[in-house]
């Protein structure tokens, strides 16, 4: 069978068709996040009964856990702490909380709604959609479906500050869906996927607005930094790769018809094609440059793309 390859001259990928098959007793919900650990094991965060499903690099099922996140699994971030151990940070939109977990699902701590009565209460809900961790251990949570703030905590979950709020002016946000730390420059920066403003907004680590990125984006969901590049799942049917200066390298699997279909994102299975995306929501890259993409689809969708060596 002929290999299916997508991408451009510098970034081409073979589609690993059928990679990561689920056991018969498991099904996905919406696949919202994906992470890879130092052993290249792949963790898929989804809204199904087992919210975290783990595969090895070859796509063999290893384990599953996370029943407490059923229906709410959303933001997903893997971080190596100063103790040298890797941990998963998970946001739950249903319960309105952030959890720090071991790689095998043991709860370290969890954090609920910030103690900010001027921001939350009554109809003003807290709905965290993503999380990231700075090199010093500070934690940043994006309230992407609630009041559109970013909340800053120390490594133990102690509250420091908040910023944002609904709007389109510098520093304001309209669905801050994803958040991550950019370490490619002279100092760390926060990248926020300001999704309904169709842009990325860049902040200092203390929440000061620095600049907008508004080119080659439609509905950016989140980020994955790999080397000098950043990988962005765009809900409107493509994955975008930018270089160290945030200039476009390529759009992968772009399908400009998918998100215009009636019933999207839950389209008939016959619509989906291995070389096209419909609703990319999360992405990560392993140590060899292979990419894993999950999509916002009720029955879940996971794709592995194998990086082709030039």
TrEMBL record:
Task: Please name the SUPFAM superfamilies in this protein's record.
Answer: NHL repeat
Q: Does the keyword RNA-binding apply?
A: no
**Keyword match Signal:** yes
* NHL repeat intervals: 120-156, 164-206
The record's InterPro entries line, in alphabetical order, gives:
6-blade_b-propeller_TolB-like, NHL_repeat
Which UniProt keywords are given for this protein, alphabetically ordered? Glycoprotein, Repeat, Signal
Query: What protein is this chain from?
Result: NHL repeat-containing protein
Q: Which organism is it from?
A: Paenibacillus agricola
